[in-house]
Amino acid sequence: MIDHPVTDIFFDLDHTLWDFERNSEVTYRNIFREAGLPVDVSRFLQVYIPLNLQLWKEYREGRIQAEELRYRRLRIVFDRLDLRLDDRQINQLAQAYIDQLSLQTHLVPGAADILGYLSGKYRLHIITNGFGEVQYRKLRNSRIDSYFSEIVHSERAGVKKPDPRIFQLATELAGVPASRSVMVGDSLEADVLGARSAGLQTVHFHVHPEPADTAGPVIYGLEELKSLL
């Protein structure tokens, strides 16, 4: 359970509030159609989704850079699907995806409701590994930016989750002790274990095929936060 008093709640953005998978699918359908590519998007996503999660893990660990992530997640998928695109086409698609992704506005079910519910009781913030300007656009276009006091991304912090320093920076900017803070996120490694190492309480939003947290609360829908906070 959560130890009270709690004054501040920090949310991850992608996969936690902003429906990354749905928005990504819409974006890929659009850019493939605009490029005239005969891609079976369902088959594409079957390969892309787990690969993208793995590449983001490598990015968090500093093993690859942002541009390599953006390129490899398309190059590898197209190669596996035996679709022959040259590097110029891959880079054009990668840029089109970045340009259009943040225009999508689908939220995780229950996100708008829980933000409205919690905003009257707590100060809310974002801690994200996403690219700064892209994340700001997602928040603005989804019309949830007004809920958050501090938006801390890895470019601003100079480190990525699960590095405890990004959580320490976020609590310092919010002016709140870690002990009165709760981190809510979908990644056991990046959000939950990272935040806990910095002294925050945690809630694991369990939506991926990975083990659930065993040392703190686990939820399977955002509405469950109402019974915890």
Characterise this structure:
The structure is a single chain. With 229 residues, the chain is α/β, with parallel strands linked by helices. The chain is built from nine helices and six strands. The chain has a six-stranded parallel sheet, sandwiched between helices. Strand 4, helix 9 (188-197) and strand 5 (201-205) form a beta-alpha-beta unit. Helix 1 (20-35) packs across helix 4, helix 2 (41-60) packs antiparallel against helix 3 and helix 3 (66-80) packs across helix 4. The N and C termini lie close together (9 Å).
Given as residue ranges, the uncertain stretches (5+ residues, pLDDT < 50) are: none
Q: Termini, distance in Å?
A: 9 Å
Question: Main sheet, how many strands, which sense, barrel?
Answer: 6 strands, parallel
Element pattern in H and E: EHHHHHEHEHHEHEE
Strands ordered across the widest β-sheet: 3-2-1-4-5-6
Fraction of helical residues? 40-55%
Radius of gyration: 18 Å
- Strand fraction equals 5-15%
Secondary structure category? alpha/beta
Assembly state: single chain
> How many helices?
9
Q: How would the global form be characterised?
A: elongated
The overall pLDDT average reads 95
Number of strands: 6
Question: What attributes characterize this protein structure?
Answer:
alpha/beta, 6 strands, 9 helices, about 50% helix, about 230 residues, 6-stranded parallel beta sheet
